Amino acid sequence: MSARIGNKLSAQNLTEGNIFRQLFFFAMPLLLGNLLQQVYYITDSIIVGQWIGSTALAAVGTASSITILMVNFFTGMANGAGIILAQYVGAGDYKKLNQTIRTAAVFTVCFGLLCSVVGLLCSPLFLQWMDTPADVFRQANAFLTFCFVGMLPMLMYNMGAASMQAMGDSKTPLRFLSVACVVNVVLDVLFIKVLGMDVEGTAIATCLAQAMAAVLVFLAIRRKMSQLQGTEPEETAEAGATFGEGPLAGQPAGLPETEQIQQEEKENGWHLFQRMALLGLPIGMQSVVINFSNVVVQSHINSLGSDVMAAWSAFSRLDGFIILPLLSFGLAVMTFTGQNFGARKPERILGGVKAGLILSCGFTIALELLVILCAEPCFSVFTKSEAVIDYACNMVYYMVPLYFTLGAARVFIGVISGTGNSIMPMIINILFMCVFRVIFLPVSAHLLGQNLLVVYYTYWISWILSLISIVVYYKVSMKKVILLAGPQ
């Protein structure tokens, strides 16, 4: 039997207690954190637009799309590490937990430095590929350069937050994020309004705030791991055998013990990195590929005129808020599943599916109703054009009612990924959220004409087919895997 980490993780242990309550209180900080980031993005845009100008706002928006793409991809890798960590937490394997955190930290530093070097060398090229207008290019390049310089602390915070959440602590990253957002806005005001800096001021403010958050989350993880050092040596040794053959298995008998341990740790580190890549790359690739499909949709929107373009832009801002519950509960279910899969408690995983569906779909439907009722006054904040407001409201009325299908799909994706299988969700998402849209939209536009209904049909069908496919896969294959993970 594996040893348990014990009471030191009892406050964050998702393997015991009321499932519905645990998922709710674990997901709430995730939801608030996502909401806080959305509010910050809007506040940052207002500061740049009002105090520097519309050209600067366009530059920041253009450059941010590049950095966000990289951060989203890395977040997939962080989630891969989080799944492994959650499984080791559930199994009570402190040794592998510690090794995984160290491996994730090394990977983050290497990836962050690589992003900085590539970004600094290729920033102008990236902007050229995006056909950035000449009047925006200089400011966009300046902003992007500073963002790439500060890429490492941003990635360190994301990996640290994913690690804390995997250990069942979603509140601590939220506190650090809250402090970082406040510091970011204060530094924006200082650098731009007081010191009169251009777009590089907001980039430096973001880097400094993220660096502070990275240091805070690093200290929190270090403190947490120091608390776990109280585990008895025999427990640690026993836990080390939970997922492997023991610390010295397979080593040549003639090697000194210290050398054997160092060699075993090196091999374990490489093995853990491979597992993180196997789990994280498919998650990261999903966001990259789905963003590509959005480019195709945007091209169709652009062909419908400036009013529709403006309406789609306003709707996209609102969309960023509507999807927060389904993203938060999907991540909560993934962590919950990871811990209980490691603890070999299949009945709790199945209960987590039901609780996750109720919470995710319930919150999403409630938000849908609120947005539908308040659509017109919401869009009036963005524009005074009646035509734009009418188009944007039309988008809400047609698309938002089906968002609950996305919420349900995210729950099943979270469960499947939490067991260590992120490849099939990637295949399903890429197939229907990207390939289907890229093919179906132009074909249906050719047959039915250039109009918004074609966009609605494309999204509706892709959401429904994706949900059906992920549910069928869960019922046919994953339920057996979960049930076989029971006590042995």
TrEMBL record:
Coiled coil: none annotated. One of its GO terms (molecular function) is antiporter activity. InterPro entries: MATE_fam, MdtK-like, Membrane_Transporter-Flippase. It is found in: Cell membrane. It is a multi-pass membrane protein. Keywords: Cell membrane, Membrane, Transmembrane, Transmembrane helix, Transport. This is MATE family efflux transporter. It comes from Aminipila butyrica.
